Amino acid sequence: MEEVVKNIKEAINGESNAQRKYELFSKKALSEGLPQIAYLFKATAFAEGIHIRNHLKALATILGSEANPQEFVKIDEEKLKSLIKDTKSSLLDAIAGEMFEFKKMYKNFVKIADKAGEDVAELSFTLARYAERVHAKLYSTALKKLESNKPREIKEIYVCSICGNIELNEIPSKCPVCDHGPQFFKKIEMS
Ligand SMILES: [Fe+2]
Ligand SMILES: [Fe+2]
Q1: Which of 4, 43, 83, 92 could form a disulfide with 188 if both were Cys (CB 3.0 to 4.6 A apart)?
Q2: Any idea which ligand is nearest the CA of 161?
Q3: pLDDT recorded at residue 152
Q4: Residue 54: nearest ligand to its CA?
Q5: Which domains, from first to last, does the chain contain?
């Protein structure tokens, strides 16, 4: 149980940093005249907030009381600002972060939570893990389009409020990550 608690706190810290970083990347993309990439960063920042909420719930379930994230979330604003170069670098950084979470961090956390019999944490990690894979794919597509100078064709972005999955332009009949219905998707405003 102790290891699961430590992992949830680490995940909340990671998600909080990713969320702030994407907000900064979004502003940078806007300043470079890339509103669609700015929009994608904004929506993904919102999605990471859903992972934070789910992980906090899982933590409260294990501890039996609400945890105070300020005790274990450390956001170094200067360090995050030093990561901002141009939007291509932002996308590369974001893809690496999402892939690390999908392939290593959450994969490992899911296994440990499963072994410990901590079902709520296991579910929270699993949902975040598969949503991160979607985030990585969307960022990769955005990077390819940026490099080939093609427009992104993003009109609307919807985020699943259960798992943080992101869908472009259309709401699916059910979320491919968590199976919840279309009513759980929230439209993110462009600015
Ligand atoms: Fe993500
Ligand atoms: Fe979902």
Answers
A1: 43
A2: 2
A3: 64
A4: 2
A5: 2-151 (1.20.1260.10)
